[in-house]
Amino acid sequence: MTRMITRGVAALSLMAALAAVPAFAQDQRAAMKSCQPDRQALCKDVQPGGGRILACLKQNEDKLSADCKAALANFPAPKQGS
């Protein structure tokens, strides 16, 4: 009985985690769209991947459009050294 409950809890946890992935991806796409002009102006030479573009945008936060700032407010600060 305990094993069945444990498996049920694990399955529900996995389903909840997987359900959050599409929502995060959708938020990320919306942020990319909102920040596209800023990215082209401020980070055009930054190689994509490893959070480098996000780090560049965050480093130039004072120069970003209001839409891009609002979109980036939903993302954590990038790791140092990325």
What can you see in these coordinates?
- Helix content is 68%, strand content 0%.
- With 82 residues, the protein is mainly alpha-helical.
- The chain has one domain.
- Helix 1 packs antiparallel against helix 3.
- It is elongated and about 60 Å long.
- 11% of the residues are buried.
- The mean pLDDT is 75.
Pick out the low-confidence regions. Answer: none
What is the chain-wise order of helices and strands?
HHH
Q: The biggest beta sheet, please?
A: none
Measured distance between first and last alpha carbons: 46 Å
Extended strand count: 0
Give the CA-based shape. Answer: elongated
What fraction, in percent, of the residue positions are helical? 55-70%
Quaternary organisation: single chain
Q: How many alpha or pi helices?
A: 3
User: Whole-number radius of gyration?
Assistant: 18 Å
Structural class: mainly alpha
**Average of per-residue pLDDT values:** 75
Number of domains: 1
Tags for this model:
single chain, 68% helix, 3 helices, mainly alpha, 82 residues
Write the layout of secondary structure elements.
Elements: H1 2-42, H2 52-59, H3 66-72
In short:
This protein is mainly alpha-helical. Helices cover 68% and strands 0% of the residues. It contains three helices and no strands.
